[in-house]
Each structure stands twice: as C-alpha cells, then as structure tokens.
Amino acid sequence: MPSILPSRRGLLAGAAGIAGAALLSGCSDDGPPAADPEVPLERRMRETAVRESERLLERYDATSAAHPALAQRLAPLRVSVAAHAAALAEGAPASSPSRSASAPSPVPSGGAAAAPPAPGAAPVPAAPAEALTALADAERSLAEARTISLADAPGELARMLASVAACGHVHAYLLTSTPGASS
Fold first, then answer.
1. 3-state secondary structure the chain
2. Max CA pair span of the chain
3. Taking the CB of the first residue and of the last residue of the chain, which one, N or C, has fewer CB atoms within 10 A?
4. Which of 66, 65, 68, 60 is nearest to 84 (CA)?
5. Is the pLDDT of residue 69 over 70?
6. pLDDT at 14
7. Cα–chain-centroid distance for residue 140?
C-alpha cells in the first residue's frame, strides 16, 4: 500500500519554497528586534527565538497537562522544540535557567490536570482534536515568523532559523495529519 504521507524531501522543499517566497515578497513590515547599538543583531534575534521556543514549550506542557492522553504523542515533538531552544541559545548569553532542557510538567494522576496557561497564552481547547489543532497553529505561526525573519538574520543564524522553521512546519503536519488526530 503506497504511503499517503509526503516525503521528507517534499516537506523540506515546501518549506524552502515558503522561505523563498517570503524573502522575495518582502512581506514583513516588522523590522529586526529593537535596535540597541550595544547589543549585536544576532544576539537580539537569538534571544527572541529562544523566548519564542520557550513559549511554545509552555504550550506543549499546557496541552499535555490538559489532555494527559495526548502526552505520549506530544513528548517527541516537545523534545524537538526543546532541542531547538537549546541550539538557538548556544549563541545567546546565559540569562536565566531555561525550561527548554527540563522535562514536561508532571501530570497528576486522575486525568484532567488543569494547569493554568502561562500569562498571555491562549487557553487549551477542551476537545483533544481542537487542542492538537491549536498547537499545530502555534507551530505553524512560529515557523512562518521565523521564515520571514530570515531576511534580517546573519548567515549561520539564518540557516538555523530556516531549519527550525522547516521542522515547525513538519510538527504542524504531524499534529494534524497523523492517524488519531481527530479522535
């Protein structure tokens, strides 16, 4: 039986196409992070990318806490996001301890753990399928924002952001297209 899933090469080619379109269209009115002449552009961009990854990790934790049955399915994707945060942080100065290396928040036994969302975070939808869709939307939005920021990023950081953005698109696909996503 032929696979209905796209190949890794196809997904990466699609992400590269999105990156190229974003670069050619100049669709971003947002400039680089706030210009502080004392802080290099790459450092500001890395710090922003790390914060965004940490917010995404919080969404994974909140979704796992609200829907314990999804925790095992989300764990490998969360580990990947944590690795992205760690890789992006390698070039940024150490500030406060990052949640990226920590394990997901423990889920109390008994089912629906109502972990409060992080300040400013969207609440986790009550239905598991909607929660997966919301998490996929967060992955997709962050991947698109990172793709757009490539135009301003210095060489090595641009390559890393492109790779992380492509992975975010794959995560969004896996969250919504894997069998059982609508259960």
1. CCCCCCCHHHHHHHHHHHHHHHHHHCCCCCCCCCCCCCCCHHHHHHHHHHHHHHHHHHHHHHHHHHCHHHHHHHHHHHHHHHHHHHHHHCCCCCCCCCCCCCCCCCCCCCCCCCCCCCCCCCCCCCCHHHHHHHHHHHHHHHHHHHHHHHHHCCHHHHHHHHHHHHHHHHHHHHHHHCCCCCC
2. 59
3. N
4. 60
5. yes
6. 56
7. 7
Burial class (CB in 10 A: 0-12, 13-18, 19+), 152: middle
Mean per-residue pLDDT for 6-33?
50
Mean pLDDT over the full length of the chain: 76
Tens digits of per-residue pLDDT, 137-176?
Answer: 999 999 999 999 999 999 899 999 999 999 999 999 999 9
* C-alpha triplet 114, 181, 166: angle, nearest 5°: 95
Cβ count near 130 (within 10 Å): 13
CA pair distance 41, 47, nearest whole angstrom: 10
Report whether 104 contacts 64 (CB < 8 A): yes
38 pLDDT tier (thresholds 50, 70, 90):
confident
Long-range contacts of 82-86 (CB under 8 A, 24+ apart): 82/53, 82/57, 84/53, 84/164, 84/167, 85/50, 85/53, 85/54, 85/57
